[in-house]
Amino acid sequence: MDQIQLLTVDTVTITTLIDNVIxxxxxxxxxxxxxxxxxxxxxxxxxxxxxxxxxxxxRTEHGFSALVEVCSGGRKAQMLFDxxxxxxxxxxxxxxxxxxPAGIEAVVLSHGHFDHTTGLDGFTRMLGRSNLPVVIxxxxxxxxxxxxxxxxxxxxxxxxxxxxxxxGFDIIEDRQPSFLLHDSVLVTGEVDRTNxxxxxxxxxxxxxxxxxEPDPLVLDDQAVVLHVRDLGLVVMxxxxxxxxVNTVAYAQRLTGxxxxxxxxxxxxxxxxxxEPLIPxxxxxxxxxxxxxxxxxxxxxxxxxxxxxxxxxQAFVPNSVGTRFHLGTPTTETG
Length: 334
Description:
Blueprint: E1 8-9, E2 11-18, E3 32-33, E4 43-45, E5 53-55, E6 65-72, E7 75-81, H1 89-96, E8 104-108, H2 120-127, E9 133-136, E10 144-146, E11 154-155, H3 161-166, E12 170-173, E13 178-180, E14 185-187, E15 204-208, E16 211-214, E17 224-228, E18 232-237, H4 244-255, E19 260-266, H5 278-288, E20 292-296, H6 301-310, E21 323-327
Parallel strand pairs: 1-17, 7-8, 8-9, 9-12, 18-19, 19-20
Antiparallel strand pairs: 2-6, 2-21, 3-21, 4-5, 6-7, 10-11, 10-15, 13-14, 14-17, 15-16, 17-18
Helix pairs in contact: 1-2
């Protein structure tokens, strides 16, 4: 495999915009600073309270979204990674967290499942017509359903290409790795599946022509990778359907960088299909030896607690509004 020259950056700041949980009493820890109750710049009416209003508060939902800001030589750039599950959740949290959406230069969608894409609805209304690049895998648009045992199959809502084009988004489809933000962010494209234990999504089917067919691999699942100067790789997954271990190993092979600084995102280890994989993932993480581990979204309660026990120094719990500050700023300007 030909290696890709990913530029190093001085710092990366990752802000959790959407996740399944918020805890306003969670203390700052290591690279993480937290949203605290009352720190929102906005207010909302509340007729049952003395004074008639209360500070705005972020929303949680079963989904994921993060703002990624890179800084190198004094130059900053921002991108959005995923968009959450509800039409207005992302836009609401952007407002509550005091983020200016006009600074976002690109959008990466980890895969086509609606809990990572639906928030584009409110985001586009907030932003207005825009020619932002939106980076996806060609199979992002697939019609899909899941077949839970004992239930009728459930077809998942899918994203409308025409709706995204109508607001001016520049849709970029690629199976191969690609760069964003001045070659400082690597989008993996389709992730190589190289281990025997990460299963994809065995209960998923795809509509091809007139038939539903098995679609366990979720080939559109992709991650973003950054290289922080002197620290190593930061690997962010949405759900990690390609397997979080496969994804980190692929990032190492693509970049030629072995040192892993942080693994952040959904690791999809919840439920009876995936929980037997938890010890194998923990074993692989010991080989990666990351400095920071932040399980989110679909990682699941049991996997999160196992990772916390296995990596007490690296583990950092996530919460909506958390900002992870990775790297050391320089005094250069540019």
